[in-house]
């Protein structure tokens, strides 16, 4: 009997814990020892909308982020404490900085705020950086660029929560982050990106760009939080044949959710109105790309967690609400 997609995905979960907070992909709850419990679901977002659920996506994001947290702790401390379940992270409770730190190594993207879309429309000063003429879509940039974003607000005339591009200077000038802390953030972000570039080169992959989130821990320490170098937060391309594809004007072979963004854009969807329907095979193929990223980057085989997922998580976190 063929299993339905709904049998294989985690869309949401309720836990008997206080202070629930919801993001597009994760929900978190307060634990009694200065930590929070994060559950990564299988939801996939694009154009600031939840599009679908992708089998094993939450587990890939959770376990791949944990791998990166462990391997980059010497660059910048992070919030990881433990992973009691394939979809669950226990992390230090940190206050997120009000900006997301995007590092770009290539000029690409299909959204209205992407660096390529603005460049194609004629912009050469993009997020505080002067770009040379003659760049093609998906070309490598002369040097990696930091292009921060912050979420929109009614004060900005934006009630949809779309990312609002900033220049690095804007972050300090607008009082979003203290100058010394922002310098520390930028230094860490560029080191993290360089580490990802090296790891990608070792396993036949190219990281085109990525998003980092940072927070401040209870002692004032800067922490890397959320997720790291996953197919959700990064554009990962296959290196084999990449230069030839770009020279021919073709898109890179992508191992991230950019394939979904492009499919939606191809049918005219950019976040407004009903989400187009795609067959389950599209989401299972997307799952395969996520798993390939995990296996290439970690060098480990992906082992799916037991189904059904929600009862498994309940069992794994049982007792955490009362502490040790």
Report on this model:
It contains eight helices and 17 strands. With 324 residues, it is α+β, with helices and mostly antiparallel strands. It folds into two domains: 5-94 and 278-322, Phosphorylase Kinase, domain 1 (2-Layer Sandwich), CATH 3.30.200.20; 96-264, D-amino Acid Aminotransferase, Chain A, domain 1. Strand 2 and strand 3 form a beta hairpin.
Structure classification: alpha+beta
Alpha-carbon Rg, integer: 19 Å
- Stretches where pLDDT falls below 50 for ≥5 residues? 153-160
Q: What is the count of helical runs?
A: 8
Keywords:
Phosphorylase Kinase, domain 1; 324 residues; globular; 17 strands; 24% strand; D-amino Acid Aminotransferase, Chain A, domain 1; alpha+beta; 5-stranded antiparallel sheet; 29% helix; 6-stranded antiparallel sheet; 2 domains
Task: Give the arrangement of secondary structure elements.
Elements (H helix, E strand, L loop, with lengths): L20 E2 L3 E5 L4 E6 L2 E4 L2 E5 L3 H16 L7 E6 L2 E5 L2 E2 L4 E6 L8 H6 L4 E2 L2 E2 L9 E7 L2 E3 L11 E3 L2 H6 L5 H24 L2 E12 L5 E4 L8 E5 L3 H6 L10 H9 L13 H19 L10 H9 L7
Antiparallel strand pairs: 1-2, 2-3, 3-7, 4-5, 6-7, 8-15, 9-12, 9-15, 10-11, 13-14, 15-16, 15-17
Helix pairs in contact: 1-7
């Amino acid at each position: 009997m063929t299993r339905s997609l709904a049998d294989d995905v985690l869309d949401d979960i309720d836990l008997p814990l206080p202070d629930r907070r919801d993001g597009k992909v994760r929900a978190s709850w307060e634990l009694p020892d200065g930590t929070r419990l994060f559950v990564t679901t299988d939801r996939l977002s694009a154009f600031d909308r939840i599009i679908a659920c992708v089998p094993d996506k939450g587990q890939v994001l959770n376990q791949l982020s944990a791998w990166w947290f462990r391997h980059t702790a010497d660059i910048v401390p992070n919030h990881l404490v433990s992973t009691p379940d394939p979809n669950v992270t226990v992390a230090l409770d940190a206050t997120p900085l009000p900006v997301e730190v995007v590092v770009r190594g290539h000029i690409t993207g299909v959204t209205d705020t992407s660096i390529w879309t603005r460049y194609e429309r004629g912009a050469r000063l993009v997020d505080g950086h002067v770009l040379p003429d003659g760049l093609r879509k998906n070309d490598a940039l002369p040097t990696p660029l930091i292009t921060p974003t912050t979420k929109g607000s009614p004060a900005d005339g934006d009630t949809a929560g779309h990312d609002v591009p900033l220049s690095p200077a804007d972050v300090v000038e607008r009082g979003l982050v203290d100058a010394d802390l922002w310098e520390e953030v930028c230094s860490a972000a560029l080191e993290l990106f360089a580490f990802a570039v090296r790891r990608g080169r070792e396993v036949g992959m190219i990281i085109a760009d990525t998003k980092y989130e940072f927070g401040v821990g209870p002692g004032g320490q800067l922490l890397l939080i959320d997720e790291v170098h996953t197919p959700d937060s990064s554009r990962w391309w296959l290196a084999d044949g990449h230069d030839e594809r770009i020279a021919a004007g073709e898109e890179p072979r992508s191992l991230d959710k950019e394939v979904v963004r492009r499919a939606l854009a191809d049918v005219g969807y950019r976040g407004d109105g009903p989400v187009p329907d795609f067959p389950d095979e599209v989401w299972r193929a997307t799952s395969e790309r996520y798993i390939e990223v995990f296996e290439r980057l970690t060098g480990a085989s992906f082992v799916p967690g037991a189904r059904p997922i929600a009862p498994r998580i309940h069992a794994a976190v049982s007792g955490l609400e009362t502490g040790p």
